[in-house]
Amino acid sequence: MKESNEWIEILSKITGLAQSGLYYSKDIYDKERYHQLLEYVDRLLNLKDIDTKNFIPNVLQDTGYATPKLDVRAVVFKDNKILLVKETEDGLWSVPGGWADIGYSASENAEKEVLEETGLSVKAKQLLSFIDRRKHPYPDMFLHVYKAFFLCEILGGEVKTSIETSDVTFFGKDELPPISTARVTYEQINQFFELLKKVPNETYFD
């Protein structure tokens, strides 16, 4: 494990302990100590030039026992090309998806994200992979995230952009644009193209 990954993982664990402690503790002094822990984590992140503007508010808003967040993404093909969206946040391309919303199943979240980001109505057909982001070559991230990728089939709709996406296009394997590797890696996209030959019977997980 890279030193930076290990450092972020340790701070993430401290944050989770403080978050859970704030939720379950009844002692006012214990709560104060947990708040101090979060402030120390915030300061350590700042020392590494990591933006923490919304760090403590976001942690305090996410009440309850600390658990990993879930990023749900959709893999959609048409005419042997994969559906990618250009993210307004970084100007790079990714398969459609985002944080799972409460009130929807994982597959429903994937379908919803495609509709919102591309205008296309899809049906999730298979869970391709369920992975721990830390165990794959993504850029460093403070949050502990699980990622779920669903193979989806187009039902209808018309391609259009959204607040989160500035372009929506199908790309062949040899014509990929710059990829937002914080969301999906080149290796994963290449693996998705293997689905055109054969869809695996089992879900990949780690």
Quick tags:
206 residues; alpha+beta; 8-stranded mixed beta sheet; 5 helices
Outline the structure in words.
It contains five helices and eight strands. Strand 1 and strand 2 form a beta hairpin. Helices cover 34% and strands 28% of the residues. Helix 1 (3-24) runs antiparallel to helix 2. The chain is elongated and about 60 Å long. The chain folds into two domains: 3-61; 69-205, Nucleoside Triphosphate Pyrophosphohydrolase. Strands 1, 2, 3, 4, 5, 6, 7 and 8 form an eight-stranded mixed β-sheet that branches. With 206 residues, the protein is α+β, with helices and mostly antiparallel strands.
Class by helix and strand content? Answer: alpha+beta
Task: Give the CA-based shape.
Answer: elongated
How large is the radius of gyration?
Answer: 19 Å
Low-confidence blocks of residues: none
Instruction: Kindly give the count of domains.
Output: 2
Strand content: 25-35%
Largest sheet: 8 strands, mixed
- CATH fold assignment of the largest domain: Nucleoside Triphosphate Pyrophosphohydrolase
Helix content: 25-40%
Total beta strands: 8
Count of helical stretches: 5
CATH class of the largest domain: Alpha Beta
CATH level-four homologous superfamily name of the largest domain:
Nucleoside Triphosphate Pyrophosphohydrolase
SSE succession? HHHEEEEHEEEHE
CATH architecture of the largest domain: Alpha-Beta Complex
Oligomerization state of this entry?
A: single chain
Mean pLDDT across the residues is 93
- Note the gap between the termini: 16 Å
InterPro entries: NUDIX_hydrolase-like_dom_sf, NUDIX_hydrolase_dom, UDP-X_N
Protein name: Nudix hydrolase domain-containing protein
GO molecular function: catalytic activity
Domain Nudix hydrolase: 67-197
